[in-house]
Amino acid sequence: MVQHSGIGGEEMILVGIGVSPGIAHGPIHLSLDVFERPEVEEIPADEVESEVIRLKSALETTRRQLETMRDRIAQEIGGTDADIFDAHLLMLEDRSVLDKVFKQLNTRPQRAEGAFYGVMSKYVETLKRIGDEYLRERTVDIEDVARRVVRNLRGIDPEHSPAQPHILLSPEITPSDTAMMDRKTVLGFATEGGSHTSHSAIMARSMGIPAVVGLPDITTRFHTGQDALLDGYGGLLIVNPTEETLSIYSATKRRKAALASHLRSMVKLPAETLDGMRIVLSANIEFESEMAAVGEWGAEGVGLYRTEFFFLNRTALPTEDEQAENYARVAAAAGPDGVIIRTLDIGGDKLHALHDGLAEANPFLGWRGIRVSLSRRKIFKTQLRAILRASAVGKVRIMFPMVSCREELQDAREILAGCKDDLRAAGVVFDENIEVGAMIEVPSAAITADTLAQEVDFFSIGTNDLIQYTIAVDRGNELVASLYQPCHPAILRLLKHVTDSARNAGIWTGVCGEMAGDIMLTPLMVGLGFTELSMAVSQLPLVKYAIRKLPAGHCADLVAESLKLGDASKIYVRCREVAMQYYSELLVH
Ligand code: PEP
Ligand code: MG
């Protein structure tokens, strides 16, 4: 940590991991978000009346907050995601619950927090015991509303985001937190935990929010209101930046803006190497609302639609119609290159209400991806039918996540065939020749790629998980972040084996993990000869620029040479040298 004299005290520079590029400057907002369950705190009887007033005012504040959130989500993501807030609002008005709370306050005088939370908790426990899946799922909503009210009673703003633009500091940020962020007020965020490929980081890149992770103790060392600068390129959090620092960063911002306008002028040009090798560059999306940017930045369709975000932040599962409409709109917006719709990949760090009460010791090795779909066939079939229906509207491909063996693919294909039969019988139109792909993100799948290639039309390599599972390094754990090495010789060999196996079987291979969008690694991606690279929209112009500067022949030599090297660091250094040789202007900040 470096210290100089800053505007509001000593300048402090903390070095973490830059996971989403960009520079943000503004006041810190601390979000500790630790919820302490209120205990019963008895009070004299003459204080009950003021507790009732306090509770009514907290309920009213909560109602206003929920309405604001509902309107914002409806605008940014879509009506159906916003409906959940209507359900939350109804809970606030449930007379039977409120009457119980008021009765409790009168019979045993106590602070409103304990009385309100006590009644809500009992309600939740009863619903959980009923054993009905739908009701059990609703308990998450009830708990959420109860916590919100208690926070308001305690005078804590339950939102991460105050109304003013700020830099958010938090111990951890979940993918659902990121999805809820208001892009207008969250200028950037920094967390104590996290890593480059945690889903929050991936989403920050999609949403264009600068982010730095892996900064221990920031929430205890700093406080709301302190001036800070966040450098998502270099992975720095600078608290109390000096005038000199601010002026250096405003020059960097100007340079980046000039580069961005140059990149924008290349939007219509193909991603083709100097010696004529053409690569398809497509986009990874989490939300339909990203489709505008997909078109604007010249993506050749969507290479990965992470549909699970359609399922998160809501407890009722989206219906077949809702899904079909959403997928059809995405397919229509994607144009002739189409969209690869990945079936539900919940589990790991993307927990859905279906995981409630399921205590998994190792969630990333547990009930995740295709495993969830194959064991909840009703949910799976609903999604497959919705995808098939969308295939009548535009070019759609299906892809299965977290495949670890051939049988899973065979099962999934059989269920898909059944869905096709149902639709045919009902006279519903769909693409009879819809292509089906497998994500290669588990080492067993990569090693048996030759066998899996018999079952599908294409592969898309999910390097984020492939790295985590191959090196046995949790992709979201900052303690082992230094071991998370995309250039590990084992990864390089697996990538080579997968593309070779696919080529022998006559199918194509793409990459949709974060390696695809890392310009430092583009020489390796080109040298391995992938057909398609799919990435966050923000990375597309940079990767296209890099590809257009590279000779594919030199990249193939780099891969051949790297395959003989035994250390990740050596492979990385060689790759970086090639990148610096051809497009250093992109790599220096
Ligand atoms: C991957 O694992 O590389 C991938 C693209 O899937 P996700 O990041 O959603 O797990
Ligand atoms: Mg994955």
Query: What's the CATH C level of the domain at 306-440?
Result: Alpha Beta
Q: Which descriptor suits the 3D outline?
A: globular
Give a count of the beta strands, DSSP E runs of length 2 or more. 17
Percentage of residues in strands: 5-15%
Characterize the largest beta sheet: strand count, sense, and whether it forms a barrel.
Answer: 9 strands, mixed
- List low-confidence stretches: none
> From the alpha-carbon coordinates, what is the Rg to the nearest angstrom?
25 Å
CATH architectural arrangement of the domain at 306-440: Alpha-Beta Barrel
Distance between the termini: 20 Å
Bound molecules: phosphoenolpyruvate, magnesium ion
Mean of residue pLDDT? 89
The helix content, as a percent range, equals 40-55%
Structural class: alpha/beta
CATH topology tier name of the domain at 306-440: TIM Barrel
Overview of the molecule:
This protein is α/β, with parallel strands linked by helices and 589 residues long. Among the domains are: 2-33 and 158-245, Glucose Oxidase, domain 1, CATH 3.50.30.10; 45-154, PtsI, HPr-binding domain (Enzyme I, Chain A, domain 2), CATH 1.10.274.10; 306-440, Phosphoenolpyruvate-binding domains (TIM Barrel), CATH 3.20.20.60. The chain has helices at residues 48-76, 79-92, 95-107, 112-130, 133-153, 175-180, 199-207, 218-221, 243-264, 291-296, 308-311, 320-334, 370-375, 377-390, 406-425, 443-447, 449-452, 463-471, 489-505, 522-527, 540-549, 552-562, 568-587; strands spanning 2-6, 9-15, 17-20, 23-30, 166-170, 186-191, 211-213, 227-231, 236-239, 280-285, 302-306, 339-342, 396-400, 435-440, 458-461, 508-511, 532-536. Strands 1-2-9-8-4-5-6-7-3 form a 9-stranded mixed β-sheet, with helices on one face. An 8-stranded parallel β-barrel has the order 10-11-12-13-14-15-16-17, surrounded by 6 helices. Helix 20 (522-527) links the parallel strand 16 (508-511) and strand 17. Helix 1 (48-76) crosses helix 5 (133-153). The mean pLDDT is 89.
